[in-house]
Specification:
Blueprint (H helix, E strand, L loop, with lengths): L6 E5 L22 H10 L4 E4 L10 H9 L3 E5 L7 H8 L3 E7 L11 H13 L2 E5 L5 H10 L3 E4 L14 H12 L2 E4 L9 H15 L4 E2 L15 H11 L3 H15 L11
Parallel strand pairs: 1-2, 2-3, 3-4, 4-5, 5-6, 6-7, 7-8
Helix pairs in contact: 5-6, 6-7
Length: about 270
């Protein structure tokens, strides 16, 4: 029997031929092609994958959209200008885009109440897209509030990105837990290797699970582990996940959440790990 994970909800693809955005924070040392990613999935018994738009390339979504258009077992988020119109989003949705990724870490926080952002959020709500949000935990609460007010589903990356174990017990994490409890926010329990304090990973996982259950958690590998290429591998990412979530039934339930969110036609039945 194939054991969970069976869906990877956070990975990136790109090639060295793609031009980097002017504010790119990392220069990948090699290609991370769709063929290489699909091979990783096959080798580890994972049937479906979700691509997170790589902020290194700004609004260049062409490679990810070509991948999802060609492979129905893949979906992707995209990065677009806040002025993007609904027709543009619908054209991307037709070939596998499911949401917009807002990567704000080490960047200025935009005013999501501004007219262009309100327009984009309105389009997203109307077509069923979600906002994938990545920022440091302490900056999340007002962003969560703005996205919720717009009626857009929210997915928060990397455990909410607490800086240390203490922040997991602090007010910003409480705000994240409250959003999870309200039922329109999901959190990716992915990339613990990116947290500066290793103790924060398990503590954040435990609190998120206690507040929202498996139905609000999503697992992802974060392949190809940008800036950690020489320290993390696909097997080690799975091993780390199984360490923080040792119960196979729990991992199977988290899998079902991933399928229900991204591939609702493929949700496995209860009891299938």
């Amino acid at each position: 029997m194939t054991t969970a994970p069976r869906i990877d909800c956070h990975a990136h693809i790109y090639t060295r031929a793609m031009p980097l955005a002017p504010d790119a924070w990392h220069r990948p040392p090699g290609d991370a092609t769709v063929a290489q990613y699909l091979d990783q999935l096959r080798r580890h018994g994972i049937s479906h994958g979700v691509l997170a738009a790589a902020s290194l390339y700004g609004t260049n979504n062409a490679y990810a959209l070509s991948a999802t258009g060609a492979h129905p077992n893949l979906k992707t988020t995209v990065i677009v200008a806040p002025s993007a119109d609904r027709a543009t989003l619908l054209a991307m949705q037709a070939v596998g885009a499911v949401g917009f990724r807002l990567q704000l870490r080490n960047r200025l926080v935009p005013d999501l109440t501004a007219p262009d952002w309100q327009g984009l959020l309105g389009h997203m709500a109307a077509i069923g897209w979600h906002m994938e949000l990545h920022d440091d935990l302490v900056r999340l609460p007002p962003l969560i509030e703005a996205v919720e007010r717009a009626g857009v589903r929210l997915v928060v990356d990397h455990f909410g990105r607490p800086a240390n174990r203490g922040e997991v017990d602090g007010p910003a994490f409480e705000a994240l837990l409250a959003a999870v409890g309200r039922g329109n926010c999901w959190v990716k329990v992915a990339s613990g290797f990116r947290l500066e304090d290793p103790a924060a990973e398990q503590a954040a996982f435990d609190r998120l699970l206690a507040r929202g259950g498996a139905q609000r958690l999503l697992w992802g590998s974060d392949w190809p582990f940008a800036n950690f290429e020489d320290r993390v591998s696909y097997p080690s990412a799975i091993t780390d996940y199984r360490r923080i979530a040792p119960d196979p039934a729990l991992r199977a339930a988290i899998d079902r959440t991933g399928f229900a969110f991204y591939f609702p036609e493929c949700v496995p039945p209860d009891g299938i790990a």
